[in-house]
Amino acid sequence: MALDRTRIEDFLDRFVGLASGATTIGLLAVADRCGLSAYLGRLGGGTAAEIANGSGLDQRYVEEILSGLAAAGVVGYDPEAERFELPPEHALFITDESSPYFMGGFLDMIPAAFAQIDGVAEAAVRGGGVAFEEFGPAMVTGIDRGNSPSQRAFLTSRWLPGVPGLIERLETGIRVADVGCGSGTVAILIASTYPNSQVVGFDFSDESLEVADSRGGHLPNLEFLRFAAEEMPTDPPFDLVTAFDVIHDLVDPLAGLRRIREALAPRGLFLMMEPNASSLLEDNLDPRGAMLYGISALHCMTQSLARGGVGLGAAWGRERAEALAGEAGFTSFQPLEDISNRFSAFYLLQR
Fold first, then answer.
1. Maximum Cα–Cα distance across the chain
2. How far is CA 68 from the centre of its chain?
3. Is the pTM of this model over 0.90?
């Protein structure tokens, strides 16, 4: 069989691009950890010598890291002035943790996931998976840094107001549960913004709950409890349950959805955010889909399988979400198009 030389050359270019992306993430992770990114975020740029002197870093490392980031288009480079510059638009993604565009969490999550590649490969041969706790503190930090900026920016300004009548109920006072609360950002925001409402955050990760309690344990209308979604208490019932990027990670998503439904009061609402994807592979064949399937196989799916779960995966998509919600007994499944975006889809479910 004759090989197509053009396809060989095209895939070579594609593979170099893949490797470049991986090594660029590595350089950004180093820059994040050593303070180089933070320095550039404050001062913008300079020559390698100026940046090394101002940041207190080794000049040779500064030169090499910034050269790689310049080649990748992360920072700009003026060859005449030998000056590197971080555009403020790029800083939103890698240095500004108050920005909803901040993606620094990937600089923790991806290295933590890569560190477990041998375990995932072994599981691919023998079955099972890599448990959540095996990814270590970096994964907890990465999830927190990855999710919290958009939650702080949009939860109380767009996401909750996107549910008709919900703000009035929260202001009057209702019982709220945040399932898979992680480090507690959502639960803390709701409890602090709506002091008349009682909020409970549920998670199975002791390390995540320790962080959550250290941040929000002082709030009188907030508590954090160690329960997986499938085992959360149902009495007294909740008027609102939220789950942000959680259901696809569960050991048994159907059981989790059924439990959430059982925990809802008669007029209760379930606000679910999940990755914005199709249930059909052919609709996800793009860089966003590649990233979603990749982080799913390396973390979301495998940590579910490690606990004997179904390994639903992050790209389960709207069609399967609606079908599973119906199987769990929900009578209403409403996509909230006004607050959904290219990465996240929001659904409102009712008993």
1. 72
2. 26
3. yes
Does any domain span residue 103? no
Residues 314 and 216 in one domain: yes
Beta carbons within 10 angstroms of residue 262's beta carbon: 15
SS (H, E, C) the chain: CCCCHHHHHHHHHHHHHHHHHHHHHHHHHHHHHHCHHHHHHHHCEEEHHHHHHHHCCCHHHHHHHHHHHHHCCCCEEECCCCEEECCHHHHHHHCCCCCCCCCCCHHHHHHHHHCCHHHHHHHHHHCCCCCHHHHCHHHHHHHHHHHHHHHHHHHHHHHCCCCCCHHHHHHHCCEEEEECCCCCHHHHHHHHHCCCCEEEEEECCHHHHHHHHHHHCCCCCEEEEECCHHHCCCCCCEEEEEEECCHHHCCCHHHHHHHHHHHEEEEEEEEEEEECCCCCHHHCCCHHHHHHHHHHHHHHHHHHHHCCCCCCCCCCHHHHHHHHHHHCCCCEEEECCCCCCCCEEEEEEEC
Look up the CATH number of the domain holding residue 333.
3.40.50.150
Domain residue limits at 68: 5-96
Question: Has residue 180 been placed in a domain?
Answer: yes
Domain count, the chain: 2
| Domain CATH number, residue 50 | 1.10.10.10
Residues 28 and 162 in one domain: no
d(Cα 136, Cα 110) in Å, to the nearest integer?
12
- Using one digit for the tens of pLDDT, what is the confidence trace for 26-81? 999 999 999 999 999 999 999 999 999 999 999 999 999 999 999 999 999 999 99
Q: How confident is the model at residue 5 (pLDDT cuts 50, 70, 90)?
A: very high
Residue 102 maps to a domain: no
Model pLDDT for residues 184-239, shown as the tens digit of each residue: 999 999 999 999 999 999 999 999 999 999 999 899 999 999 999 999 999 999 99
Domain co-membership, 147 together with 63: no
104 located within any domain: no
Rg, C-alpha atoms of the chain: 22
Residues 249 and 173 in one domain: yes
